[in-house]
Design goal:
This protein is of the alpha+beta class and 188 residues long. The protein has two domains: 75 residues, Arc Repressor Mutant, subunit A; 97 residues, ADP-ribosylation fold. Helices cover 33% and strands 20% of the residues. It has a three-stranded antiparallel β-sheet. A hairpin with a 4-residue loop joins strand 6 and strand 7.
Amino acid sequence: MARDHRLVKLSKRLSYLLRHHPEKLDLHLDPEGFTTATVEELARRMGTSPEMIRRVVATDPRERFTIREGRIRANYGHSVPVGRAMYEAREPAGVEELPDALYHGTAPENVEAIMRQGLSSRGRQLVHLSTSREWARRVGLRHSREPVILRVDVREAARRGVRLWPAGPATVLATDVPPACLTVAGNS
């Protein structure tokens, strides 16, 4: 079932503001990434209703947002410094809490460099991994019409000191992943 296009549009705008540019609406984020403004105040600044924001949060299949005590945050995907601090303050998951493999979708032209240098957060605060090949393919489609899926060996990553945090039903965040943990799983 397709999501309401108004909710998708609002979700993208919330992601933009809460992950990358809170200053665009004079928003301030606390150390856990929550807005200091209430959902009601944010809705007013965005020209929408608090109910629409709550519907975005409640219906998002990737659990991108959390509302707690009347305030909202993006759960992952930050380019602003709060993202890394928010997760590093938490205990990372143990290998028994994670699948044996995680996945990352990328453009074919990036594969050689990634296999040589590993996965790094680049413009984000942490590396974004997917819990399935299908989710990695969906993410990879943003970068290429024929993404390549990389497989991350979770046990090897943990052995090499990579810290991993589940961030939603399909997303795991990680510190940089060395090349020894990666194999090419194939194209979409």
